[in-house]
């Protein structure tokens, strides 16, 4: 072999070795550069209701990842025609396109044309920056070649179509399809697919929303390219170019009414399930929540109405929460009248609960401990307990009052007396089991005079015990969470705790129902069975001013609370009215939303119902006459106007020689005959109404001295 032949042979071998080494280096470097974690794309987390209807989305990038099999062939072809017509022929680098680009770059003296394949674009978008340098281009080539070795063409196209940006916050073809046409990608027509394929080059410039004419022209260019690539016939292309854009835009607008709820979903995901806010915004989960959007929107709108919030200025704040009493799922929540995302959430802020604490700290525990019954008599007088001297708001006292009426009229003195009889330690044991961990150890606990107070959400959980047979439950916002593959990764398992018996809970429901019907919570209108309790704390620096006002209540299917007040109460900022305002707001939210409510509470099985209270009326029209009965001789007939309540018993007393003697009883009627009277020594008489429920007598009637009445008149 000649010397020249040997040199040529060695040169060829060297070139082959160099190429082989270069190729090995490319593969090695590609493996080093490619980090598969970067292919885990950000995707939107969807919140859906229990009917699987989308409520809203949480995202950094609004993206729904779809598999390639859901993307129609004609949509895939549109992107291939405009971005990389030789996609199925090359191995990551299109030599023809690169040559053409190099030629134009050399003529221009710089980098002017890309010539990038879809694989290269994927490499650039995922792993590299957008700067046009030779070094960046070299890295792009290395990564592209390795991507082609590692993944199929269909997988590369799938990743590309899910990754690219289409404008107006839409990432990936599924989000773009829903944005511009309000349909899933699988439903896209040819011309719609062509429109989407026209956008990635310049989403802003070719936006069909902002620049419809330019977008139409660009779409028609894509249809031309599909024709040239053989995907469409000339006639098909021409016919499709004659169609309008036919947009059906569905832009994602954050509903302000949902902001508190969204924050509490994110808070629960992080605290209860250790899923960070960042992961939630990027992870593409589907979260089923128990929200009732109608109640949520109704509450939001009513919270904007200043007429419900009486204060010294327009900055009065409020909070609202409504829970499904059976499951514990939160149906609606408002963290403030001007709530901003990640702002001060007043549903979680502790406030002085006022009289809303009485059923939880005093009356419920007292019934459960059998210390009292609903119609037991409590002391209603201004007593002192060391230095503490509680007083009724109206400064009126009846001496004795039933537990039923003390609760209905929200009397302070009987509540403190009952707590003193029950014992603070016993009360706090119940409060702890109700989820109210209170440090205070004084009798002011009975009236809600607490150092820290309680939050609206904790009060709702506690009151649930009365509405659900004595059991509390933990409120929740996340019913179920599924990952991108539809696997359930989180599911609500609310815990219940038995605090009261069914009997105690039912007695409390009956009494709290009376509070709404004829007590401190009768303000406003509600057509249905409602039980609840008001609460007001005074702002003592200003006469007649209030600091916190409340209503906590429940129907046969929901339990909720409204709080009103200022974030900081001072002499310039205080409430000018009391608890009637949150009571009315609560009733209006329920009335104006779509919730259905029963007309009456249904008692659970095996409980005794609570009879209606008996109220004794004074009798001042007692009359007496002496009549003659053939067998009864002389008879005194006593008559009076009886109460409409036929359960009232009347004790009849004979008064003789200054001494009174009970001689008989009449139930439910206004007449009593005293037979065989000695007409030579006729006594006087009076009657006293008697309450069988409280074992309590009323005031005695007027006294009468009988006189003779003819037989005919008597009849």
Automatic annotation (TrEMBL):
Enzyme Commission number(s): 2.4.-.-
Reaction equation(s) it catalyzes: Preferential cleavage: (Ac)2-L-Lys-D-Ala-|-D-Ala. Also transpeptidation of peptidyl-alanyl moieties that are N-acyl substituents of D-alanine; [GlcNAc-(1->4)-Mur2Ac(oyl-L-Ala-gamma-D-Glu-L-Lys-D-Ala-D-Ala)](n)-di-trans,octa-cis-undecaprenyl diphosphate + beta-D-GlcNAc-(1->4)-Mur2Ac(oyl-L-Ala-gamma-D-Glu-L-Lys-D-Ala-D-Ala)-di-trans,octa-cis-undecaprenyl diphosphate = [GlcNAc-(1->4)-Mur2Ac(oyl-L-Ala-gamma-D-Glu-L-Lys-D-Ala-D-Ala)](n+1)-di-trans,octa-cis-undecaprenyl diphosphate + di-trans,octa-cis-undecaprenyl diphosphate + H(+)
Transmembrane segments: 7-34
Limits of the Glycosyl transferase family domain: 53-226
Keywords noted in UniProt: Carboxypeptidase, Cell membrane, Cell shape, Cell wall biogenesis/degradation, Glycosyltransferase, Hydrolase, Membrane, Multifunctional enzyme, Peptidoglycan synthesis, Protease, Transferase, Transmembrane, Transmembrane helix
Highest rank taxon of the organism: Bacteria
GO MF annotation terms: glycosyltransferase activity
Annotated ranges, domain Penicillin-binding protein transpeptidase: 318-590
UniProt xrefs under InterPro entries: Beta-lactam/transpept-like (IPR012338), Glyco_trans_51 (IPR001264), Glycosyltr_51/Transpeptidase (IPR050396), Lysozyme-like_dom_sf (IPR023346), PBP_transglycosylase (IPR036950), PCN-bd_Tpept (IPR001460)
Name used for this protein in its record: Transglycosylase domain-containing protein
Source organism of the structure: Bacillus songklensis
